[in-house]
From TrEMBL:
<feature type="domain" description="Pyridoxamine 5'-phosphate oxidase N-terminal">
    <location>
        <begin position="36"/>
        <end position="135"/>
    </location>
</feature>
<dbReference type="Pfam" id="PF01243">
    <property type="entry name" value="PNPOx_N"/>
</dbReference>
<protein>
    <submittedName>
        <fullName>Pyridoxamine 5'-phosphate oxidase family protein</fullName>
    </submittedName>
</protein>
<dbReference type="InterPro" id="IPR011576">
    <property type="entry name" value="Pyridox_Oxase_N"/>
</dbReference>
<dbReference type="InterPro" id="IPR012349">
    <property type="entry name" value="Split_barrel_FMN-bd"/>
</dbReference>
Amino acid sequence: MTGDAFYHEGNRSLQDRFESRRIADRLAKMARAAFTDDDKAFIENAIYFFLATVDAEGRPDCSFKGGPAGFVRVIGPSELAFPDYDGNGMFKSLGNLDINPNVALLFIAMHGTPRRLRINGTARIDRDDPLTGRTVGAQMTVRVEARVIFPNCPRYIPTMQLVEPSPFTPMPGCDLIEPAWKGFDAFKDDIHPRQPTWKG
């Protein structure tokens, strides 16, 4: 991908001010529109990623999405899918996607070799997606068509150790656990019903 297709005027202005246009153009050549085998392996082994969305007025929202390895799947040359699990019922991210499909995903490896992979594209939500019925704990499925996929410098990623996965992560054959806050007096009378999902 050329730098002119990858960057807008705001990017270019700062690149020129800091004399980084040449390296920015070199890095833009690493951007692609299709997943490599290495991208696929990295994504499908991830147990979390960060999701950025915007509302109709362009106001951003960022969310942490977690699950067991394989909860995000690369399902086409430029397409991935991930489940929407039961949450707090606010639907900040998916509500944004419902009115503005532009999305950015950030995958980070903080153990082993540090790594970052960024994906910008458009998303669609489908409660009746066939993947929903085959994904433990899913109440909907989000499919993302990648516009651009690119690695990012990992230099500031700390080395961390995974102590244990979240006990709330939906797993085949396991009962879904409700978080304690749903039973707090301040919330319990307003909790929405958990949607029926496949348990595996």
